[in-house]
Amino acid sequence: MLQEPSPEAPVPFGRYQLIRRIGAGGMGEVFLAREGGEHPRACVVKKVLPNLVANRAFVGRFLDEAKVVVRLKHTNIARVYAMGDVGGEYFLTMEYVQGKTVSRFTKRLRDRKAEMPLGLILLLGEKVCQGLQYAHEAKDESGSPLHLVHRDLSPANVCISYRGEVKIIDFGAAQSTLKEEQTAPRVVIGNLTYMAPEQAKKLIVDGRADVYSCGVMLWELLAWHALPQKGDPIERWRRAANPSWEPPSKHNTSVPRDVDELIAKALKKEPGERWNNAAEFGEALKKARLRHAPDVKERDLGDLLSRVFHKEKSSEDAVLMEVVYGKTVTPIASDKTRQLALVPPTALAFEHTAVMAPADILKSNDDITDPGKPDPTLADDGTPTPAKDPRLTRPIDARLLEQRKSFGLTFGEVQEPLIEQSLIQEIEATGDEEPYISGEGNTAAFQRALWWQRVALFGGVFFVAVGLGFLGVWLALR
Fold first, then answer.
1. 198 and 147 share a domain?
2. Is residue 208 part of a domain?
3. What CA–CA distance (Å, rounded) separates 157 from 94?
4. Same domain, 463 and 376
5. Are residues 408 and 472 both part of a single domain?
6. Domain coverage including residue 463
7. Is residue 208 over pLDDT 80?
8. Of these four, 37, 68, 191, 325, which has the most CB atoms within 10 Å of its CB?
9. Is the domain of 310 the same as that of 394?
10. Residue 1: closest CA among 405, 417, 362
């Protein structure tokens, strides 16, 4: 059994030093680590559970994925440095992004009754599109296209660093490592809230599905109207398969009409009516940014993030000193909220939501295809033909409606450690926890302040009402 690592007693693991155990996921344990060498750097190491190493299918998908994701080297994609094994223990090493996911960032802004400025939203979308286009055009060693599609792009899978860098997390995982899972006719990987209609209907998808997901994320930011992340999966599925969108300006009147129009094009139900690719969408966002906020830079995005998370950033700076330089700093507070604030957004990488499709969503007039393997009804020239699968009529197992998966395996198949729900809430901001507002003390203190404000307000109203009553009686007696 691995000893518990600490900054004072790091645990060697290949060319890495494991510094802190920061959580557990569906596929294994997650560590803050240092990669040695002339220029040491912080990274995130995710170790595969021993019982999964014995699963040959899992290891096969894991190693296949390594050939894909380690090739993606772009400033707007969080790097996967390496995947492999050390003494029979499989692992992957990811970039340590010192920052927050977009979902966490926007939740904090809402808690502070603030909004994200138009220029920063357009810049964010522009950078996401640059990362998408790079990945969509990626090729293998022989120069053949990889046909990568993220399929799970959402605010929880885009992060922003304190320097203002925008990075997509987990690119390629849903496309390549979950191919076997995609062969199940009614299993789709991704977040229903941001899912393209063709993906919800199990049609073959291309990069335009990611353009749609990016459009949904930008709609949510521009409208400043949080989209539902919970509720009946079947109803959410119906909305995903047959979407209807209002202009962002209907919720936020400051959104310019030309921005409404370019978002509306990204959200067209038919892929052929959207922007042709991520590069085209990104260029339209850039032109809009130069029209409406020409002076906005990445540094402005990082400065805003740093202001609203200044307490967390201070703690993360101290932890990085421990990780990279081995310097002992003040111990992290035992309060769980403070500890989770130090978890980098890449800690949940390669773990996705999987949903079981209701049979009635896949209507008889839809062209049902099987994205995960060659369709047996393909024409001689390889052109896909409609293939109605009788398995689609099987009843839905309610337990399989929505689950998280790693490399095709359901979390329920892993006995322990299971994913910590609090870890998901902190990284993705999906929970209903009370707001922790940076710069205003801890949650309890903030709630006490709100209570005294309410007491003062109601007390003031009471005394005004009493005074008006006495005034009325006095006037009547006169």
1. yes
2. yes
3. 14
4. no
5. no
6. 445-478
7. yes
8. 191
9. yes
10. 417
User: Is residue 360 among the annotated active site residues?
Assistant: no
Whether residue 471 sits in one domain with residue 392: no
DSSP state letters, 180-199? HHHTSTTEEES-GGG--HHH
First CA to last CA distance, the chain: 89
Instruction: Answer whether residue 286 is part of any domain.
Output: yes
Residue-wise pLDDT tens digits, 240-265: 999 999 999 999 999 999 999 999 99
- Check 152, 170, 210, 260 and give the catalytic one: 152
For the sheet with 409-410, list strands across it.
187-189, 351-356, 402-406, 409-410
Question: Is the pLDDT at 55 greater than 60, yes or no?
Answer: yes
Taking only the tens place, the pLDDT of each residue in 123-151 is 999 999 999 999 999 988 888 888 899 99
pLDDT in tens, 411-425: 554 334 445 555 566
- Statement: the pTM of the whole predicted model exceeds 0.70: yes
Give the residue among 46, 104, 97, 92 at the shortest CA–CA distance from 76.
Answer: 97
Residue 383 sits in the same domain as residue 270: yes
For the chain, helix (H) and strand (E) counts, in that order, are 15, 13
CATH of the domain at 397: 1.10.510.10
Residue 474 has a pLDDT of 59
